[in-house]
Write a structure and sequence with these properties.
The chain has 361 residues and is α+β, with helices and mostly antiparallel strands. It contains ten helices and 14 strands. The strands form four sheets. A five-stranded mixed sheet has the order 10-9-8-11-12. A four-stranded antiparallel sheet has the order 1-7-6-2. A hairpin with a 6-residue loop joins strand 13 and strand 14. The longest helix is centred in the middle third of the chain and has 29 residues. The two termini are 41 Å apart. The chain binds zinc ion. The site of zinc ion has 9 residues, from loops.
């Protein structure tokens, strides 16, 4: 039997997911969204009347009392009505307005629900006895997972989404191995153990395709779609690369990226920057989920320093031509280095040093 004292110490992480729902659910959700608007507008009207007649303004609790019992008539979950009242009260306070805008046909569909109302059976979601199917699922969703409060939301094109929060347990023990990571151009990441994660070809190929499409005077919509597709593929690639590392290593030390590297590339600076920072962000939260942690250190001198003897020998790559040199030998100790693996080893050493300094401080 699980000891409640130790169980309380299992670290948890709340994840937010958005799932696109199948279009067949739109009719029922549109109906509920109209009922939601009705409740919202009732709150607004009641509040407006209270203001005009000089009565006390209504709290979320007052509104909940007034709407009590409307669930059956409106065919809405009672707690959905409660959440609308609370959301109305919150919005009124945030905007510091006596009353708010009315919700109508132009308002984006919204159906909130409370913790535990939406369940997951391993394949689909269930809300008020109705099964909702999504276009995709996520690995983190397991049968019987606890789903927190969330909402069904429509976008401007009338497509419905399910937004949920899920609490997952983080691993309590981190993998013991440690790794340093040098971020780069040709290889997205070089690991201190010698592994390399090559930047996939589509990083560049798609940029070219995009440029072509723009030259061909494609419609803005088409160009936008290409952009979105590239962004998705990159994100997917970064997710897979980062989860592999987070599963293997308990301490992940990453170098910041020097502007010199960025200046060297043909790719748009912004997309590289975004790739690196997304990768770091994903590593950080995935490391936490797997019980580990990440640390960022300055990558200054990490390419020039020999990771074997710690010297900056005369033979190490320096200056303008340094990025062209893939391999070099240390003139002090004779060690032969792959430039990026050597840098990654130095990054790991710097990370470990800063940890012991922190412990002694
Ligand atoms: Zn050396």
């Amino acid at each position: 039997m699980a000891d409640p004292a130790t169980e309380a110490h299992i670290p948890r992480q709340t994840l937010t997911f958005k799932f696109r729902l199948r279009d067949k659910h739109a009719a029922e959700l549109n109906r509920q969204a109209r009922a939601v608007n009705f409740v919202w507008n009732f709150c607004n009207e009641t509040q407006q009347k209270a203001v005009h007649s000089g009565r006390k303004w209504l709290s979320a609790f007052d509104l909940q009392k007034l709407t009590n019992g409307a669930s059956k008539d409106l065919d809405l979950h009672a707690h959905t009505i409660q959440r609308i009242c609370r959301a109305y009260d919150d919005a009124r306070k945030t905007h510091k307005r006596p009353w708010l805008r009315w919700r109508g046909r132009k308002s984006l569909g919204w159906v909130p629900f409370n913790t535990g109302h939406v369940t997951f059976d391993g394949e689909a979601f269930k809300f008020r006895g109705v099964v909702y199917q999504t276009m995709h699922l996520r690995d983190e969703l397991k049968l019987g997972v606890k789903i927190g409060a969330g909402s069904f939301n429509a976008d401007a094109r009338g497509r419905w989404f399910l937004n949920i929060t899920v609490e997952v347990e983080c691993a309590t023990s981190a993998p013991i191995s440690r790794v340093g990571i040098d971020l780069g151009l040709k290889d997205l990441a070089t690991l201190s153990n010698g592994e390399k994660i090559a930047s996939p070809r589509f990083y560049r190929v798609s940029e070219e395709k995009l440029a072509k499409a723009q030259r061909a005077r494609k419609t803005p919509k088409r160009v936008r779609n290409i952009h979105a597709k590239i962004a998705n593929r990159r994100k997917d690639f970064l997710h897979k690369a980062s989860v592999n590392i987070a599963k293997q290593f308990g301490l992940i030390v990453i170098g910041d990226v020097s502007p010199k590297k960025i200046a060297k590339t043909r790719l748009a600076k912004s997309s590289l920057d975004a790739g690196w920072s997304n990768f770091k962000r994903m590593l950080a939260y995935k490391a936490i989920r797997h019980g580990g942690s990440t640390l960022e250190v300055s990558e200054r001198y990490t390419s020039q320093t020999c990771s074997c003897c710690g010297a900056i020998p005369a033979s190490s790559p320096k200056g303008m031509g340094a990025l062209g040199i893939r391999e070099w030998a240390c003139s002090d100790c004779g060690a032969v280095h792959d430039r990026d693996v050597n840098a990654a080893r130095n990054i790991l050493r710097l990370g470990q040093q800063s940890l012991t300094e922190g412990a002694l401080a």
